[in-house]
Backbone:
């Protein structure tokens, strides 16, 4: 790789890092980042360097999908300050239900299941951890990239059976 390409890549690493750090939502579509690169090979190298740079200052860059788009989410170690344990539980249960029955969680069915804590679900919707998807034919709840990012360390281990077993043990 010549010196000009190295400088361009270094500039893109700085630019991507800055964009992600100052973005209010702490997420960006992969497609938007790719469009700033000269080719996909450069992108893969650049995103690895961005990931390492952010990791060096205490952040993690998590890649996830949402509505057939890929996103990068900026997260930190530890608990999200805006969320209580009940919020984490709701997100975990929503992910488990999503994994068990598919990605189309009916808004009204979920509202019935979580009626005792629905104000907490509304908080998660208001703060972009969950999203309502409405059309004439359906009304769904989806987990947003931010919601997935919050549970990044445990998302692969979440399943409905484990959550139901946990609830049985606590009752």
Residues:
């Amino acid at each position: 790789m010549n010196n000009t390409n190295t400088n361009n890549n270094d500039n893109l690493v700085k630019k991507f890092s800055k964009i992600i750090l100052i973005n209010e939502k702490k997420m960006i579509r992969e497609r938007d980042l790719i469009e700033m690169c000269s080719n996909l090979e450069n992108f893969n190298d650049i995103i690895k360097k961005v990931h390492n740079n952010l990791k060096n200052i205490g952040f993690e860059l998590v890649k996830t999908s949402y509505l057939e788009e890929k996103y990068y989410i900026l997260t930190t170690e530890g608990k999200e300050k805006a969320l209580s344990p009940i919020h984490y539980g709701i997100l975990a249960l929503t992910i488990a239900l999503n994994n068990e029955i598919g990605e189309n969680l009916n808004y009204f069915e979920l509202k019935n299941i979580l009626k005792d804590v629905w104000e907490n679900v509304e908080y998660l919707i208001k703060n972009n951890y969950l999203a309502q998807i409405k059309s004439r034919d359906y009304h769904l709840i989806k987990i947003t990239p931010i919601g997935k990012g919050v549970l990044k360390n445990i998302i692969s281990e979440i399943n409905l059976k484990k959550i139901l077993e946990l609830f049985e043990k606590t009752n």
